[in-house]
Amino acid sequence: MTMKIKEVADIAGISVRTLHHYDQIGLLCPTSTTEAGYRLYTDEDLEALQQILFFKELGFPLKKIKEIIESPSFNRREALELHQKMLLEKRRRLDQMIATVAKTIQHMKGDIHMSNKEKFAGFDFSQNPFEQEARERWGNEAVDSSNVKLASLSKDEKDGFAEEMNALYARLAALRHTSPHSDEAQAAIKEWYVLLNRMGNYSLDAFKGLGQLYISDERFTKNIDQFGEGLAQFMCEAMGIYTNNHQK
Description:
Elements: E1 3-4, H1 5-12, H2 16-24, E2 32-33, E3 39-41, H3 43-57, H4 62-69, H5 76-109, H6 116-119, H7 131-138, H8 140-151, H9 155-175, H10 183-199, H11 204-216, H12 218-224, H13 231-246
């Protein structure tokens, strides 16, 4: 059984333009075309599309997805099992975030009292869900160094580090309506730079690039702005200013 591109787009919930793009970059090429030039997709093509969309949902760039699925060692079942584990972890964190939002609403109404630690339950920045992007931008050394350092920490040390990061996010959020040039903003963003280098090896250029990623990648923006709308933009500007002021 074959399907035309519009049928596939409707089933998958994506646009025809997206499927055209996947075909153009060689990520998903239809098995055949009609004499009139219409693309025809088979069940196997739809299975490949499902796999692509799973990878995409987990934040993999299209270039990396193509590289993975074209590898001779690629095993679709193993990949699906890994997707399942990652999505379950994602659901766990979302459930925790939803619970935190609900408790915060109750706290605002005066129904319950939340400790400062409870206010940030679910904001776990000790793990980087965007590791692939970091590797592609700044190489493996910085990321591997970070992973080694984190792996060497005990659970209590990791929890403490996450709390420290969350506290600094909250402090920066309180400053986000001030000038990123201000002494207070620059002092806080310096602490952010120092904190990042405690778990990795970030040059000033990498630090500035990370700030730009905060606003160019909606996933970063969404996570950071949970501490306060506009925080990602503020941090990006402050990180750029800090870099410019400290480069020789």
